[in-house]
Write a structure and sequence with these properties.
The structure holds two protein chains of two kinds.
Chain A (H helix, E strand, L loop, with lengths): L8 H15 L4 E2 L2 H4 L20 E3 L4 H14 L3 E4 L18 E4 L6 E5 L4 E4 L5 H10 L4 E2 L10 H6 L8 H4 L5 E7 L5 E3 L33 E8 L1 E2 L3 E9 L5 H13 L7 E3 L13 H8 L6 H11 L4 E9 L1 H18 L4 E9 L40 E9 L3 H17 L20 E9 L3 H20 L12 H7 L2 H17 L23
Parallel strand pairs in A: 2-4, 3-4
Antiparallel strand pairs in A: 1-2, 5-6, 6-10, 7-11, 8-9, 8-10, 12-14, 12-15, 13-14, 16-17
Helix pairs in contact in A: 1-3, 7-10, 11-12
Chain B lengths: L1 H13 L9 H11 L1 H4 L15 H10 L15 H10 L14 H11 L6
Classes of the chains: A alpha+beta, B mainly alpha.
Chain lengths: ~550, ~120
């Protein structure tokens, strides 16, 4: 058994007894077998002393039980690590930041408290998954569309609190930005409601986010200032139609104009998440054309501009593509696509256009299973795991998991090219073939920036994990030298990540630590999350 | 003495009382909710990689190359021990499933469902 740091076995057992009184004996998990279920399945430290494992888990069913758990933890100095569904795999899963923490498993708090079709919002508890909320909406035939992340088993609350994102319009696919109203158990066991939830009987908790005075909602995302127990979300009214279209641009240098035009559509809320690609290059996370030719192009290092244009010509394919996705009435989506074609045609000589899928929404239930790209239509799925499970590319040696490293870069072509080169070189320095090329394209989950990066395999083999960690840290360091820093990371790298936000001697982190000391003087809630440690555990910073 | 005898009888008898019956029907419902999004029938048909393919089914198709069914609930060789080990321990990209998600009784039902056609 693992004990929390600086807690005696006697005190720990006394705390477990009180947890059992609070939630019922069957909802406190303390046997080795049960606690092992809270390991991070994708741990990059699996089986090593550094693996972040829990000492126990406790699963409350209501907010009053969460309050009791927090008070008991304060009494005995027990660190708690709350999870909603614990499915944020690659970012730590259900395992705590601090070895020996007690996981507060909120999966049993799984009520969908309200879905208002006319005002287009939902109020949910932490254990509600995207699948649950989707089924609730479909069963009642409510004309609402969810914005879902790739894996549908996570929760709207957990995903938004970890700054997760989806695929539809910018206002909805930034999941934290689409929240409205929280209920939070604070580290002293009190309960607060944010925004209009602080005004009794306002009737507008899920309509107006700010209330009056400082907005504190952001303090509870990627942090350790409280345990969120309810959260509201704005939902998209079900569009009448969906239309996709693809634009291609012939030359390598056309990327700048392509980005400008796509950004114009994004910033006017005229397209959902655009999907950049390169017909001449290997896809980022899967098979694609150009593999052997690309390898040949890259064998002597980063090619010159002339070499890149010559390569594109020889491939007889366009350098770039972008798929656009339109949501709304049929007349509007068709007109928007027409307008987009006109603008791209004017900005990029030789641009081509291909009409994509037109769908009337919602997708009939019987057609859902065969519908590709489900998340773009607000349908939760787990199909994305096909990319990392055993597949034709990894048939003999599938990884046990993966750790993603995505850094934020400015929304411009030069940043894409420069970051691709740096990522390519960082991989080479680590002795790993770089997946990036001069034709790599970014992710556009957040509309105002790009994300680029890498994903490293994780294993239940310490030697292999050591190599993955070395690569991960190399990439994070190299990117940070250029100001490209991750928006989210696995607990194993959260201290490193926090150190990269280093303006004015890490003044932001020092401010967060002062908040931590004030709000949570006993350091009960998730010590170490995103680099925020309580005073008693804080390392001396040089 | 009488009280002790009573306790012995009650506790002793409880060992012979049938456990709550497992339910294949509920097992299928639990399977459909928790397992089928990865281990269901491949949809769209013949898509074995990328968008539309189901990770578990595709992975097993690649692994077994047609020697065993790729769709999990078409298998006739699964044992209760194997099912429980994989569900509780995870395997490759398939993560651990906790008891707040699928309880032990529900897992027994899933086992009953997946072993219903098991060849003896």
């Amino acid at each position: 058994m693992v004990l929390p740091p600086n807690v005696s076995a006697a005190d720990f057992n006394a705390a477990l007894g009180e947890f059992r009184s609070a939630v019922g004996a069957s909802w406190v998990f303390s046997s080795d077998e049960d606690v092992a279920l809270y390991r991070d399945s994708y741990s990059i430290n699996w089986g090593e002393p550094e693996e972040r494992v829990a000492s126990a888990a406790v699963a409350p069913a209501k907010v009053e039980e969460v309050q009791q758990i927090v008070r008991i933890a304060n009494k005995y100095g027990i660190p708690l690590y709350p999870i909603s569904t614990g499915r944020n795999l690659t970012y730590g899963g259900s395992a705590p930041n601090l070895r020996g923490s007690v996981v507060v498993d909120l999966k049993r708090m799984n009520r969908i408290l309200e879905v208002d079709e006319k005002r287009a919002f939902a109020l949910v508890e932490p254990g509600v998954s995207y699948f649950d909320l989707y089924n609730y909406i479909r069963e009642r035939n409510l004309k609402l569309m969810l914005d879902v992340p790739d894996p549908g088993w996570g929760s709207p609350m957990g995903n938004s609190l970890d700054h997760g994102a989806g695929y539809t319009m910018a206002a909805f696919r930034d999941h934290f930005n689409s929240h409205c109203g929280m209920e939070v158990v604070t580290p002293d066991g009190d309960v607060i409601r944010t925004g209009m939830g602080a005004a009794p009987n306002s009737g507008s908790w899920q309509d107006f986010r700010y209330g009056a005075g400082p907005s504190v909602d952001g303090l509870f995302a990627q942090s350790n200032f409280g345990i969120v127990t309810k959260m509201g979300f704005w939902l998209m009214p079900m569009p009448e139609a969906f239309l996709s279209g693809t634009v291609t641009a012939p030359r390598h240098q056309d990327l700048d104009a392509l980005v400008q035009e796509v950004s114009y559509l994004e910033d006017l809320s005229l397209t959902g998440m655009p999907q950049y690609g390169s017909p001449v290059a290997q896809a980022s996370f899967g098979p694609g054309p150009g593999g052997a030719a690309m390898a040949s192009l890259m064998q002597n290092g980063w090619p010159s501009s002339d070499a890149l244009e010559a390569f594109v010509k020889a491939q007889k394919r366009p350098a770039w593509s972008v798929q656009l996705y339109f949501y709304g009435p049929e007349e509007v989506v068709r007109a928007t696509w027409q307008a987009a074609k006109r603008r791209f045609g004017k900005a990029i000589a030789g641009a081509t256009f291909q009409d994509g899928e037109f769908l009337t929404l919602p997708i009939p239930k019987e057609k859902e299973p065969t519908q590709p790209d489900k998340p773009r239509l607000g349908i939760p799925a787990l199909e994305v795991f096909n990319m990392v499970a055993r597949n034709p590319l990894t048939a003999n040696d599938p990884a046990d998991g993966h750790a993603d490293l995505f850094v934020t870069i400015p929304r411009k072509a030069s940043a894409i090219w420069e970051s691709s080169r740096v990522l390519f070189e960082a991989h080479r320095e680590a002795g790993v073939p770089g997946r990036q090329s001069p034709f790599s394209t970014p992710f556009t989950y957040y509309s105002r920036c790009f994300w680029t990066g890498t994903t490293v395999p994780t294993w239940r083999d310490p030697a292999k994990n050591a190599r993955s960690r070395a690569l991960f840290e190399k990439v994070m360091d190299r990117c940070a030298e250029h100001g490209w820093v991750s928006y989210r990371t696995n607990p194993a790298f959260q201290d490193l990540l926090a150190s990269k936000y280093s303006f004015n001697n890490n003044s932001l982190l020092r401010f967060q630590e002062r908040l931590k000391d004030s709000i949570d003087p006993n350091g009960i809630i998730a010590p170490g999350r995103y680099g925020i440690w309580p005073a008693k555990m804080r390392k001396t910073r040089a | 003495m009488r009280q002790t005898l009573f306790l012995v009888l009650v506790l002793g008898l409880s060992n012979f009382m049938p456990a709550q019956a497992v339910s294949e029907t509920n097992g299928k419902a639990v399977f459909d909710k928790w397992c089928a999004p990865c281990h269901g029938a491949v949809a769209p048909k013949n898509v074995m990689f990328g968008s539309g393919a189901l990770a578990g089914t595709s992975a097993l198709a690649v692994k077994y190359k047609g020697k065993l069914p790729a769709v999990l609930d078409e298998r006739t060789d699964l044992t209760p021990a194997l099912i429980k080990t994989v569900v509780r321990g995870g395997l490759y990209g398939m993560p651990i499933t906790r008891k707040t998600e699928v309880g032990d009784a529900e897992l027994d039902d899933v086992v009953a469902y997946l072993t219903r056609n098991r060849k003896k």
